[in-house]
């Protein structure tokens, strides 16, 4: 499976949400990381043929996805950021209903729904009404609906939004499991959601991919260094005006700061290994603040 984006652009009036993007994806997990408004959903909606590009092309194994029609939709599973889940349907009925919409034969659908309910860990809740599920369970039902047609391409828009830490971990494991022999693209603005499961991470800002690579490659690409030091409370605001501070924590010795700077900020500062979160804050610090 190969998806190629060439010079892909989407504008709304004179605002460009996706800006001349060129990318290639094959099987594996791609993590699209960016702050709110970076253009992630716009990109994903184009990849699902729900939105036409202003210019440029998306091809799947060499064919224009907008000309493939049903052939492409059969390859695709999509979990939108907000998905309609019919609150009074049970999990099982909801999935059977979506299977009907997707044109899956009833006998096949019944078997597939049962398998998927088990795979996403909802067997005990299969007769529960959708509105009674927790946020994490709803998202798992959402993944199951995206997987009904056993898609080769799985696109998940902010699948971990609103999940608690346990649900996040469970979700990450599920996505890793589903990614075998499949192309999975998932968007998030939470670094830890993709740090360990994405084969390739894309940092997106203002409609462009500003960095891409494995987690290690992205970390190593950061031009500045990360320093750790302890300072008195009274100095913190002056330091924050002067340096990019990726984290601060009150500790008995004072305030522990992680400072991103090409030079040693204080004689007592020690150089520490950067994390992907430092890199994210390095590129998007002000935007995260906004
Ligand atoms: N239909 C539209 N008309 C006008 N502007 C739009 C439209 N859809 C998106 N935008 C704008 O395009 C930009 C990118 O939006 P998009 O939803 O793709 O970002 P995002 O990275 O998915 O953000 P979030 O994490 O908040 O979902 C935003 O500034 C948004 O306001």
UniProtKB/TrEMBL annotation:
GO molecular function annotations of the record: ATP binding; ATP hydrolysis activity
Family assignment from sequence similarity: Belongs to the ABC transporter superfamily.
Keyword Nucleotidyltransferase: no
PANTHER family documented for this protein: ABC TRANSPORTER, ATP-BINDING PROTEIN
Annotated ranges, domain ABC transporter: 3-231
Gene3D superfamilies listed in its UniProt record: P-loop containing nucleotide triphosphate hydrolases (3.40.50.300)
Protein name from the UniProt record: ABC-2 type transport system ATP-binding protein
Pfam families assigned: ABC_tran
